[in-house]
Write a structure and sequence with these properties.
The complex is a heterodimer of chains A (about 625) and B (about 425).
Chain A: H1 2-13, H2 16-22, H3 25-59, H4 63-73, E1 82-87, H5 89-104, E2 116-121, H6 124-131, E3 139-141, H7 145-158, E4 171-175, E5 178-187, H8 188-194, H9 203-211, E6 219-222, H10 227-241, H11 249-252, H12 255-267, E7 268-271, E8 283-286, E9 290-292, E10 301-305, H13 306-314, H14 321-324, E11 338-341, E12 349-350, E13 354-357, H15 369-382, H16 385-393, E14 397-398, H17 432-439, E15 449-456, H18 464-479, E16 486-492, E17 496-504, H19 507-518, H20 528-540, E18 548-555, H21 566-575, E19 580-587, H22 593-602, E20 607-610, H23 615-628
Parallel strand pairs in A: 1-2, 1-3, 6-7, 6-10, 15-16, 15-18, 18-19, 19-20
Antiparallel strand pairs in A: 3-13, 4-13, 5-10, 5-11, 5-12, 5-14, 8-9, 16-17
Helix pairs in contact in A: 6-7, 10-12, 18-19, 18-23, 20-21
Chain B: H1 2-28, H2 32-35, E1 44-51, H3 53-68, E2 72-73, E3 76-84, H4 87-96, H5 113-118, E4 125-127, H6 131-145, E5 159-160, E6 162-171, H7 172-182, H8 187-194, H9 200-203, E7 214-215, H10 223-237, H11 244-247, H12 250-260, H13 273-280, E8 287-291, H14 292-306, E9 310-313, E10 317-318, E11 320-321, E12 324-327, H15 335-348, H16 351-358, E13 363-364, H17 378-381, E14 395-396, H18 402-417
Parallel strand pairs in B: 1-3, 1-4, 7-8, 10-14
Antiparallel strand pairs in B: 2-3, 4-12, 5-12, 6-8, 6-9, 6-11, 6-13
Helix pairs in contact in B: 4-6, 8-12, 13-14
Classes of the chains: A alpha/beta (about 625), B alpha/beta (about 425).
């Protein structure tokens, strides 16, 4: 210690060289030895640790490395605390606002990871479909628990277990944070004409009034991709069968009931992925299977959630997205006040279950422990007083039962247009198989479809390409379920190899088409235009003004041998008696995309690119698109 | 000499830069604690407890208090984390070995690091809805591993934490006409109400109430829903020991499906029927069978939302739930974790926490403790709605066994398919 003091003193007095020389040789040596040893140890430790670290990287054993590896293999790291939530459009805005506030808290998991919640918007039916695969999200908020049941049922079908055993769930921990009943939102004057507020009003009154030509009353509802759409569609089945519960497959498929539903579907404007407007033609395409409709309006009534009525009345410039729950904008109502009608036959509830998916890591990334922590933390946040009042403010009924809905500043206390003591009774949901029929009811109002499938089976289609195409085509045929639907097939290579004229899709006709698909064989060149000529000839002169006509052509190559030219085909398609829509699929990289795009443009259809992994989905989309075409 | 010194100084400077640089880098990349740059956290024994849904709110409140008061196991702070889960879901996970319990012939020391790390999230204990569930899980373990994993004796033996039972509940407005026309609540009464073609119109109520709606938990998703069917079968066959062959009786099946046709099953997930009634009112059920604790816990909410209470009636036959705290005996959890679980179990059984249970509508495990023993007891608060202190006169159904459970699940599948 004294030596150091000496040194300091000398440091101020003499140059550094002198300082060093003034240490006694032994002390100088000792000082060097101590400092040297320390630094040697430090360097050694650092080197060893660094070496171990590098060795770990090379051997793949260190935690850092495994994270790197997992990040490459999985969409989220194994310690991720970011929770992605697929949320129904009807609650997306409110939840996004809450997530922003939650993220602003900058909470961390016990191991120090930052908790983050991100919302992605999906329709409830998209949530179901994606949850059964390996979704890019870990939690879901559909608009009803019904969809979670659907996930479980379909999951159990995908991974069946022995009867009487306890099955594994796809849906894990679930929490409700707010609810809202499905109501018929009616313009104030239209509601008064219906007898509101003195008379109780039901679905039946709305159906009858919409069907009567003298009343000029129009109503609409979302497609059965949302709980509001299911309630509205189910009400048609109940009204058609004259029942208030106990809908069975037998009743739902009875001719008189189907007829009533068909008429009711046509009398209503149905919006959403599986619905369409009767006022204007379809506009563009949305997502994988969605079609967007645009409505002229205004409507007298629309089926939606109570919360949307409150939101509308508070800010009527919000457009249809608030009402349909499907994110479509359009002037559905004039800027007047809306009234919530709780149908006397009963209604359903939107309960927005916030559910963690049990992604177990078998076929993709598992939900991480940190993501579970984030789920729990966000759940607590949603159930906090602040969030519950925010949800009340937005027009939802919060699950915190201590909150008085009728006390200021509750929007329920403001007006008499919503009734917190309603609904009094429920529209009973039928069992799963019957519900599927209800969800497919939109098909009943669809016009018949005449489709010619044109398939290139030239030499280049050999192997997995052809087998993939066969599966996709079979799926397409399966999807066509309308009573009057007809399908034909043109298989071509160096010429037309098989020509199947349009067949009604009864058991025999369906079997015939499927047999033709199965018996396709690869070989020869590509006479694409000639094959299309044959297909359009089958369609252009048919007489059915209500039907839809379409050609779906698939090729993986270039036309190299046709006698007809593109302009011949264009003339035939555009000059024919029927509007024939042409959808084209470029299968693989070698397909003549330019020609196929031209064909789709000429035929007012769509051009798709596909490979062996997407071909099935592409055909599913095309089938939906054709069914939606008016 | 100067060159040598310069060389030494340069060497030392380079070494210092290397050391400091490495430390800074590792700090930035997050391994600071291991290098001593960040404060070392106190040692923690973390335990996960699968917890039956009807006791989750009570146990969670207790766990929060327990964690906050710094309980120790082997000198380390105990941190309790609950995994709320219905007993049926938990039983399914044990039976399928979803938690990855080790096979009997694989010693812990042979496990690779990755598997050892995975065991960190292995549940240390299970609070099941009833002892019968633990026994069913043990039967499965005997088959798979050759031994019980939840013990009936010794230091880690399972101990019931609290009690509740199935009771009838009816909205006051609905109860008055129903009881007048059909008699006291029973499965037979509700069956008559369920099959009334015009619903409340012929049951003496307001026709605007629609059909009679029965609130019962879903049998394939909750233990209490399954137990409700067992009590229905008990009443139908007029005995307390229902057998597997009873529930497959076609006549009983028809009667049950008519009865269940009036159920609504509005809510997915963790919420019980009483919470469902509080949220959705009459649409969730004009009346039905509830866990007493859940009904009492949601009574204030029901009154607040729907401006009237649900009155309680005690059935002729019921099922009790005793929520045993069962500590996993296998090597997947450490001795420190087992000790931590035991400490938490003792905490839950302490007099203070048993009194707290009354505030959650649960009857204490200690039968000598009266249901009005705590100031905030929900039994005391809602006594005017029909709550009874002494329910010893109610007949108790025999516990569910695996054979009966399989038969009931099969019945439920058939019902859903129909």
């Amino acid at each position: 210690m004294s030596g150091t003091q000496d040194g300091k003193e000398q440091e101020q007095a003499v140059p550094s060289e002198a300082k060093l020389s003034r240490f006694p040789p032994r002390r100088q040596f000792f000082a060097f030895a101590v400092v040297g040893c320390f630094l040697l140890c430090a360097c050694g430790m650092t080197t060893v640790r660094a070496g171990a670290w590098i060795a770990g990287i090379l051997s793949g054993e260190s935690s850092a490395t495994s994270e790197v590896k997992r990040a490459a293999a999985y969409p989220w790291p194994s310690n991720s605390a970011s929770l992605t939530v697929a949320v129904s459009p009807s609650v997306a805005e409110s939840l996004r606002e809450r997530a922003g506030k939650f993220n602003g808290l900058r909470l961390r998991t016990p191991d120090g990871e930052m908790m983050q919640v991100e919302m992605v918007t999906r329709s409830s039916s998209e949530i179901v479909a994606e949850s059964l695969q390996q979704p890019g999200f870990q939690a879901v908020v559909p608009d009803s628990s019904l969809w979670l049941d659907l996930i479980e049922v379909r999951w159990a079908t995908l991974f069946p277990t022995e009867s009487g055993t306890l099955t594994a769930s796809r849906v894990g921990q679930t929490t409700l944070f707010a609810v809202s009943p499905v109501v018929i939102a009616v313009q104030l004057n239209a509601a008064q004409q219906l007898g509101w507020p003195h008379q109780s009003i039901g679905w039946q009154e709305v159906h009858t009034r919409a069907a009567a030509p003298s009343t000029n009353f129009s109503w609409g509802h979302p497609s059965p991709e949302s709980i509001s759409g299911i309630a509205a569609t189910l009400s048609k089945f109940h009204a058609g069968a004259g029942i208030t519960r106990g809908l069975t497959t037998e009743i739902a498929t009875r001719a008189d009931v189907v007829d009533y539903v068909r008429q009711a579907e046509r009398a209503a404007i149905v919006l959403g992925a599986n619905g369409r407007s009767h006022a204007e033609p379809m506009q563009g395409e949305r997502g994988a299977n969605g079609e967007e409709g645009k409505v002229k309006g205004p409507l007298d009534a629309f089926v939606t959630q109570e919360q949307a009525v409150i939101a509308w009345n508070r800010s009527s410039d919000r457009g249809l997205s608030w009402l349909s729950g499907e994110g479509k904008a359009g002037p559905v109502f004039p800027n007047g006040q809306l009234v919530a009608i709780y149908p006397k036959e009963g209604t359903l509830w939107a309960d927005y279950p916030f559910a963690l998916l049990e992604l177990d890591g078998r076929a993709g990334p598992a939900v991480t422990r940190n993501q579970r922590s984030t789920y729990r933390a966000f759940t607590r946040f949603l159930l906090s007083e602040d969030s519950q009042y925010a949800l009340l403010e937005a027009g939802f009924r919060p699950v915190d039962l201590t909150i008085d809905l009728m006390a200021e500043p509750s929007p329920f206390a403001e007006t008499g247009i919503v009734d917190p003591l309603s609904p009094q009774t429920l529209l009973t949901l039928p069992p799963q198989p019957v519900l599927e029929i209800v969800m497919d009811a939109w098909r009943l109002s669809m016009p018949p479809v005449n489709v010619m499938l044109v398939v290139d089976t030239s030499d280049s289609m050999k192997g997995s390409k052809l087998s993939g195409a066969k599966i996709a085509l079979q799926g397409f045929v399966d999807q066509m379920q309308g009573d009057g639907d007809r399908i034909g097939l043109v298989e071509f290579g160096s010429g037309v190899k098989q020509f199947g004229s349009l067949h009604m899709l009864d058991a025999e006709g369906r079997g015939h088409v499927l047999y033709m698909i199965e018996s396709m064989q690869a070989g020869g060149s590509t006479r694409l235009i000639d094959a299309l000529w044959a297909a359009q000839s089958e369609l252009t002169d048919l007489v059915d003004s209500e039907a839809t006509y379409a050609i779906v052509v698939l090729t993986d190559g270039r036309d190299n041998d046709s006698e007809y030219r593109l302009r011949d085909l264009q003339r035939a398609i555009q000059g024919g008696q029927n509007q024939v829509f042409v959808h084209t699929v470029a299968f693989g990289r070698d397909a003549d995309a330019g020609l196929l795009e031209d064909l789709a443009r000429i035929g007012k259809g769509r051009f798709y690119r596909a490979d062996e992994t997407t071909i099935e989905e592409i055909y599913r989309q095309i089938a939906t698109s054709i069914q939606m075409t008016e | 000499m100067i060159r040598t010194r310069l060389f030494i100084v340069a060497l030392l400077s380079a070494a210092v830069v290397l050391v400091v640089g490495t430390l800074v880098w590792r700090t930035i990349t997050g391994n600071a604690t291991a290098l001593g740059l960040a404060p070392v956290r106190p040692q923690v024994v973390r335990i996960q407890v699968i917890t039956a849904l009807p006791v989750t709110s009570w146990v969670q409140a207790a766990a929060d208090e327990f964690n906050a008061t710094g309980h120790l196991a082997d000198g380390a702070a105990i941190e309790v984390e609950l995994i709320p889960m219905d007993g049926l879901a938990a039983l399914g996970k044990w039976e399928r070995n979803d938690f990855a319990a080790l096979p009997a012939d694989v010693p812990l020391e042979d496990l690779p690091q990755e598997k050892l790390e995975a065991l960190e999230s292995f549940p240390t204990a299970w609070i099941a809805d009833g002892r019968f569930l633990v026994e069913m899980a043990n039967a499965s373990f005997r088959e798979q591993l050759g031994r019980d994993q939840f013990l009936n004796d010794g230091q880690y033996r399972m101990s019931p934490l609290a009690n509740t039972l199935l009771v009838w509940g009816l909205f006051r407005s609905r109860g008055a006409p129903l009881l007048e026309n059909l008699g006291p609540p029973s499965w037979y009464t509700f069956h008559k109400a369920a099959v009334a073609p015009t619903g409340w119109k012929e049951l003496g109520g307001d026709p605007g109430w629609g059909n009679f709606k029965l609130a019962v938990n879903s049998a394939d998703k909750s233990v209490s829903g399954l137990a409700a069917i067992v009590t229905a079968a008990g009443e139908y066959f007029d005995r307390t020991d229902v057998l597997a062959e009873d529930v497959v009786d076609p006549q009983f099946g028809t009667w049950l499906s008519e009865l269940m046709g009036a159920t609504t099953h509005l809510v997915a997930g963790e919420k019980g029927t009483a919470k469902s009634v509080a949220l959705f009112g009459y649409t969730a059920g004009d009346g039905g069978q509830f866990l007493e604790s859940e009904l009492l816990r949601n009574m204030a909410g029901i009154q607040n939302r729907w401006q009237e209470p649900v009155l309680l009636y005690y059935p002729k036959l019921t099922t009790w739930f005793d929520f045993p705290f069962a500590i996993w005996a296998g090597p997947e959890t450490s001795t420190a974790q087992k000790e931590a679980a035991l400490a938490f179990q003792n905490f839950l059984l302490s007099e203070g926490q048993q009194r707290r249970a009354l505030e959650f509508g649960l009857r204490p495990a200690d039968s000598s403790m009266r249901v009005n023993a705590a100031e905030g007891s929900l039994f005391e608060q809602w006594s005017r709605l029909g709550v009874e202190d002494d329910v010893s006169s109610v007949n108790v159904m025999q516990p569910l066994n695996r054979e009966l459970l399989s038969a009931l699940l099969h019945l439920q599948e058939m019902y859903e398919k129909r």
